[in-house]
């Protein structure tokens, strides 16, 4: 397979202005990923700063309530800043620093990636600008404050649907404007090569730990690994070290929004088709003339019309399966896990919990399901309260 | 060979960019005709895209207005067919990869040939990905136009050697839009281009005033202007044609006065 391609997907569909920047990034990454000192430094940031390894927790009460497969939760919500996003950000920020960059820019949907980038920038003494759809700055006001508290500038993006895709477009525009001192810290396994590979490699720590922890606790691999998918970084991180283990079902949960048969959905694999956008060839929600669809999900983090190219490829070859979960199902799962296990998952992660709730009862008690809880749900409490018709002041 | 070379045979060329369908396609047709009547040597027709990542605010807004008004790729092919009844200057589409890919490259470029389009500019398809559309363009006699940027450096000669139609030199970092000054050493880029290809090269991004055009034209075979024109369209809407015509006349005179 050609570098930067996953089957037909991937590639580098970006303005010429950015080509030397991605080529430079690829060279730097290929050098530092084999560099012992770099890896030592990154491992120390993971373990001493971000709180890795994250726990693999046997969810006993959930298992009993669902009455089927044993449920394990991979607790990325316990990482510093409350989500898996920090794994990728620490890797990229360290890489950017080694490349002599002094400024990080990033897009963010739910705000988790923005907060993680602002955090790494604060830690490493770098300047930070985060682009966030104006709609999302309202849905996730607390995260906007957190980013500012950490010293980042937050730029509300008003164009298009004023959500994640517009934030990505604006971050790309800003990168073409200022390249020399700036690294675009892309938050998911998407965009032009080498981002899908770099982000995957930094997130692969999830499945590396999960695999070892599961072997230690159960002496065998899980039957299924379930994760939510927007761009797909926590999912690819959760799947990566299981891809060659055919016995492990890999399941990505897309944002079905109100319904996959409505226009208010963000389920890319289930409703999109092949296209070229944001630097990559992959599946996108779009109309008959290739105009990108204004997608919808209750979850700002999954509210994206595309999916990372490696997921598109895993779908094509049938290695992973992608299922839509509606807003209603996700909110039910959000409440279920909170009450049953005392763990409030991010609304994004609740999409994965919702699918486990569907399949676990039909599985045998000797089977094992691992769900990645990609983030914690504190940020979502006000929005879910509103969804249930209750108004709370943050 | 397409007719693009003819645009550069009457001295330095002036190339306006016009977003199709802003505010409607009838106005676009009138603007194109006014531009050509006032000295436009080649016209870039923008097919609007929902997420134009290489554009600044002015052209982004033009795209949004065009799409909100119901402009589609098929209606733009009809527009070109109508323009070709009397417009003989080269016409080039500028749009984004997904517009062509989603329509089907073969079907899209076949239609381009049929209606009389001469070239296509896709700012999100760099040298490394041009095989996606390049061979299909060639099969239909459409020039796939390449861009070089201020950051291209060691890539300029490689891109210039393979360039078709004309080479688009991006004057500045960032996206399209009006700029007070252009600081890139365009003369240096142009000399590398000249050493590697015989095809003409035009400079765009950020040019708006006759004075800028005159200065830029010293280093180029042509000057491309988009945002300044779409600003006029944003202001005058359906009545834009005479205002664009007058602006094109001033710019063409400035470009011809360059030495």
Summarize the structure in words.
The complex is a heterodimer of chains A (394) and B (259). With 394 residues, chain A is of the alpha/beta class. A 6-stranded mixed β-sheet of chain A has the order 3-4-14-9-10-13, with helices on both faces. In chain A, strands 1-2-12-11 form a 4-stranded antiparallel β-sheet. Chain A contains 16 helices and 14 strands. With 259 residues, chain B is α/β, with parallel strands linked by helices. Chain B is built from 11 helices and 9 strands. Chain B has helices spanning 25-37, 57-68, 73-83, 97-103, 105-115, 134-139, 156-161, 186-196, 210-217, 227-236, 241-256; strands at residues 13-19, 43-46, 91-94, 119-121, 143-145, 147-148, 167-170, 201-204, 222-225. A 9-stranded parallel β-sheet of chain B has the order 5-4-3-2-1-9-8-7-6. In chain B, helix 1 runs parallel beside helix 3 (73-83) and helix 4 (97-103) crosses helix 5 (105-115). In chain B, 59% of the residues are buried. The chains are: A alpha/beta (394), B alpha/beta (259). Chain A binds chain B through residues 11-21, 159-160, 165-166, 169, 172-173, 176-179, 273-279, 281, 284, 286, 288-292, and chain B through 49-51, 53-54, 56-57, 60, 64, 67, 72-74, 96-103, 123-129, 132, 146-155, 159, 170, 173-175.
Strand arrangement in the largest pleated sheet of chain A? 3-4-14-9-10-13
Number of helices of chain B: 11
Write the H/E string of chain B, N to C: EHEHHEHHEHEEHEHEHEHH
Largest interface: A-B, 37 and 44 residues
Q: Which blocks of ≥5 consecutive residues of chain A have pLDDT under 50?
A: none
Q: Helix segment count of chain A?
A: 16
The proportion of residues forming helix of chain B, as a percent range, comes to 40-55%
User: What structural category arises from helix and sheet content of chain B?
Assistant: alpha/beta
Q: What structural category do the secondary elements of chain A indicate?
A: alpha/beta
In short:
The complex is a heterodimer of chains A (394) and B (259). Chain A is an alpha/beta fold and 394 residues long. Chain A has helices at residues 16-32, 36-49, 60-66, 85-98, 112-124, 134-139, 141-149, 164-177, 195-203, 205-218, 233-239, 268-271, 309-316, 327-341, 347-359, 381-387, and strands spanning 5-6, 9-13, 56-58, 70-75, 103-108, 127-133, 153-157, 182-184, 224-229, 249-257, 273-277, 279-284, 320-326, 368-373.
């Amino acid at each position: 397979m050609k570098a930067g391609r996953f089957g037909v997907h991937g590639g580098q569909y970006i303005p010429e202005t950015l080509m030397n920047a991605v080529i430079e990034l690829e060279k730097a990454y290929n050098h530092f990923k084999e560099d012992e000192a770099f890896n030592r430094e990154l491992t120390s940031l993971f373990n001493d700063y971000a709180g890795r390894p994250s726990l693999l927790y046997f969810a006993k009460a959930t298992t009993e309530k669902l009455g089927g497969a044993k449920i394990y939760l991979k607790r990325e919500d316990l990482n510093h800043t409350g989500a898996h996003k920090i794994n990728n950000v620490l890797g990229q920020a360290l890489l950017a620093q080694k490349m002599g960059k002094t400024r990080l820019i990033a897009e963010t949907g739910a705000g988790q990636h923005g907060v993680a980038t602002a955090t790494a920038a604060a830690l490493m003494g770098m300047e930070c600008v985060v682009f966030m759809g104006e709609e999302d700055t309202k849905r996730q006001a607390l995260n906007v404050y957190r980013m500012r508290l950490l010293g980042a500038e937050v730029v509300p993006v008003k164009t298009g649907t004023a959500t994640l895709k517009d934030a990505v477009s604006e971050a790309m525009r800003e990168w073409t404007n200022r390249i020399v001192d700036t690294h675009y810290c892309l938050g998911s396994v998407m965009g032009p090569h080498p981002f899908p590979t770099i982000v995957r490699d930094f997130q692969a720590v999830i499945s590396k730990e999960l695999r070892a922890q599961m072997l230690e606790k159960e002496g065998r691999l899980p039957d299924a690994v379930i994760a939510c998918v927007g761009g797909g970084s926590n999912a690819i991180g959760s799947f990566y070290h299981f891809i060659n283990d055919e016995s492990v079902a890999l399941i990505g949960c897309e944002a079905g929004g109100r319904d996959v048969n409505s226009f208010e959905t963000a389920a890319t694999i289930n409703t999109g088709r092949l296209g070229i956008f944001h630097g990559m060839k992959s599946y996108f929600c779009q109309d008959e003339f290739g105009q990108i669809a204004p997608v919808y999900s209750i979850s700002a983090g999954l509210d994206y019309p595309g999916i990372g190219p490696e997921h598109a490829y895993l779908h094509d070859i049938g290695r992973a399966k992608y299922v839509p979960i509606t807003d209603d199902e996700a909110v039910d799962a959000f409440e279920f896990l909170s009450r049953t296990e005392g763990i409030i998952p991010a609304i994004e992660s609740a999409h994965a919990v919702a699918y486990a709730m569907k399949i676990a009862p039909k599985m045998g008690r000797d089977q094992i399901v691992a769900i990645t809880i990609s983030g914690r749900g504190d940020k979502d409490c006000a929005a879910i309260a509103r969804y249930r018709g209750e108004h709370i002041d943050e | 060979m397409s007719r693009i070379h003819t645009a550069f045979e009457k001295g330095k060329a002036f190339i306006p960019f016009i977003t199709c369908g802003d505010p409607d396609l009838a106005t676009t047709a009138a603007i194109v005709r006014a531009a050509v009547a006032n000295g436009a040597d080649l016209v870039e027709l923008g097919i609007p895209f929902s997420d134009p990542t290489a554009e600044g605010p002015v052209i982004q807004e033009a795209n949004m207005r065009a799409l909100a008004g119901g402009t589609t790729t098929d209606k733009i092919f009809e527009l070109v067919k109508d323009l070709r009844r009397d417009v003989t200057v080269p016409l080039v589409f500028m749009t984004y990869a997904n517009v062509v890919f989603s329509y089907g490259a073969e079907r899209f470029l076949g239609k381009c040939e049929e209606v009389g389009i001469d070239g296509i500019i896709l700012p999100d398809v760099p040298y490394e990905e041009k095989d996606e559309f390049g061979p299909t363009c060639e099969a239909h006699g459409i020039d796939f136009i390449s861009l070089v940027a201020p950051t291209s450096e060691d890539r300029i000669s490689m891109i210039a050697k393979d360039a078709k139609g004309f080479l688009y030199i991006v004057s500045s970092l960032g996206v399209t839009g009006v700029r007070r000054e252009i600081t890139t050493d365009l003369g240096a880029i142009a000399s590398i281009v000249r050493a590697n290809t015989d095809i003409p090269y035009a400079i765009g991004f950020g040019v708006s005033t006759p004075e800028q055009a005159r200065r830029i034209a010293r280093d180029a075979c042509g000057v491309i202007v988009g945002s300044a024109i779409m600003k006029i369209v944003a202001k005058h809407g359906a009545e834009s044609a005479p205002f664009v015509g007058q602006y094109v006349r001033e710019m063409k005179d400035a470009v011809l006065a360059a030495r």
